[in-house]
Amino acid sequence: MVQIDNEDLKQVRSEFLDTPKYRNTQNAVMKNGIKKSITNQSVVNSAPFVFSIDVDSNHVLNQKQSGRCWDFSGLNFIRYHIEKDHHIKNMDLSGSYVYFYDKLEKANYFYQNIINTADRPLSDRLVNWLLTTPQQDGGDWQLLVDLIEKYGIVPMEAYPETAASANSQELNRMFNRKLQKDAMKLRDLANSDASDEKMKSVLHHLNAENYRVLAISLGTPPDKFTYEYRDENNEYHTTGQVTPIEFFKKFVNINFDDYVELMNLPGENYPYNTPFGVEISGNMVGGQPSRYFNVSMKDMEKTALEQLKDDEPVWFGCDVLQEWAPDAGLLDVNVYDWDRSFGIKLGTDKTKRFEYRESLPTHAMLISGVDMRDDKPIRWKIQNSWGTKPGHKGYFIMGNDWMEQYTYETVVNKKYLTDEQLAAYEKEPVMLPYWNAMNPI
């Protein structure tokens, strides 16, 4: 073990005080904060908000103080198709409706995993992982698809936001405390060889309690509602009384089976053109397992470009807070001058950053356009879900170098894959452990 030596500290302090550029940075950072002080303004000025291919300029929604980005970005993808197919302007779909059933299903999924691991000690790594965070706001594309196919969707006015959905911290803390308490009961029952009938009865009771907690916090989700609207020609329409599933089938002409979730992780442990799965990565019992198809960044960019050229946005997952200038709405690897300002270099190769948890897929958004130069992407137009204040009324600019370093997932139509890739996608996936950072829950 190496201790910090006081004499060494004197030398380090002297060298720091004798270096003018670090003292200048110190003065700026102490007054204005780190990022404002080291922003490379020339990089900001060189990124105009103009795109040669511009698919979607819909108004930006706001997930507020919650982790529902995957929910909002997926619904933004769906509403784009609804508005285009049905000639509607500014249709908002309810993120809270999907959120309600995600919480309800995640709780039951947690219960099943607790029962399945009841014979393991509490010190077991998997049991500890389950109990540390029984559920949370995060998710992924396939989790959203499972929820929508089971419960449908509703417009925002049929199930609006509440204080608990806009700021989910209180709900998550309370709900996790309840689930941790429920886990004690379920482990005791499983280890006492309780009958299947007894276990089903207890689970029914616990899930009924969870429904009550969520309904109080988020509102009672509608079983039927009427949606009325005027189209772009000012013609009046009404659905009459419909269920959320009927609304989904009426308005959404998307076959989710046509889409594949691509991932990009380079390196020998992640061979390209290989399907990957993640243990315990679902959000519901009976849901489809997540499947990621690892491709080169060249193929990821190529398929995203082809989908944009066909007038369709692209759902994607990335590490949004890396090298992000919020006021400018700019994602660029050179936007901050860490080396000249602090004398340090951040980051290494993409997979090492991922494996050492320096960078993870933390946020989902929608690629809505791209600017091309000499047939190559230079910057991408990004629709976020943080309201209209950041960036360009809520839209971001993503540099292509940033995309290659910090984008981990895209969802594209299978038709953009080669025949060889499609055949490889259908193979048995390589399973990643539950603690791998690709696990959305």
Automatic annotation (TrEMBL):
Keywords for this protein: Aminopeptidase, Hydrolase, Protease, Thiol protease
Recorded GO MF terms: cysteine-type aminopeptidase activity
One GO CC annotation: cytoplasm
Gene Ontology biological process terms from the UniProt entry: homocysteine catabolic process; proteolysis; response to toxic substance
InterPro entries: Papain-like_cys_pep_sf (IPR038765), Peptidase_C1B (IPR004134)
Pfam families associated with the record: Peptidase_C1_2
Compartments, as annotated in UniProt: Cytoplasm
Family membership noted in the UniProt record: Belongs to the peptidase C1 family.
Protein name: Aminopeptidase
